[in-house]
Amino acid sequence: MATARAAILESVAAKPRILNNNKDMIWSLVPLLLLCVFVAMVSGNCSVGLSGGSGDDKVPAYDIDSGLKADARSLAFPIRLPATPNDWKPNSGTTTALENTSVSNSGYITSNGVYIQLSQTDATEDSLVGSLAGDERLLGAGTREVGGSSWVVYAKPDGGRTVWVTDLGDVRIGLMSNKGKEEDFTTLATATLAASPLPGPGTGPQVLPTK
After folding, report:
1. Distance (Å, whole) CA 65 – CA 179
2. How far is CA 155 from CA 2, 85, 178, in A?
């Protein structure tokens, strides 16, 4: 009996490779795949995405210069292009309707990976705050004197979304972030008010008529 069992085991071990099943092939590839992953991570060509900031390649880039200059040429209120820190990355820009006018929105990712938005409009302050608050219920949280202007702060009592708004007469400027710190708001507020308004409507490049 023992001799027969040994013969069977020997015949199984010696079967041709073509008769190996899929499970055998999968197990033979596992070490090779692990080696490929290790080499990719060591060479810097692979990221597991555990952290992110303005320098992260996963953060989409946005041409904020062209976007805000186009808004300035098409909107009836002053638009400013802030000189933000070099380690901040513009990542979005939109123009949305509000009341009977528009809002120019620009998004930035700070060096700490926090999103903060700049909004510029000639709509009323109440309308701008309501738009930036979204579904959140924000309460007045005092004022800040930044960049030579007074900013009214709106926030949630238990933390979360915060909005800063200042009224420059011909334009209202709002800042919004869910996780931004005081220094993030101060940095963007200062940079925005330090910038002069961009050339307005009618100042774009002229297009000569074709004959």
Report:
1. 25
2. 82, 25, 10
- Residue 20: φ, ψ to 5°: -65, 145
For residue 199 the two structure tokens come to 């050339």
CA angle 162, 71, 138 (to 5 degrees): 15
pTM greater than 0.85 (yes/no)? no
Q: Topology of domain 64-194, per CATH?
A: Phosphorylase Kinase; domain 1 (3.30.200)
Residue pLDDT, tens place only, 32-85? 667 655 545 444 444 333 345 555 556 668 999 999 999 999 999 999 999 999
Residue ranges, CATH 3.30.200.100, the chain? 64-194
For the chain, count helices (H), then strands (E): 5, 7
pLDDT beneath 70, residues of the chain: 1-33, 35-60, 202-211
Half-sphere exposure of 2 (CA within 13 A, CB side): 0
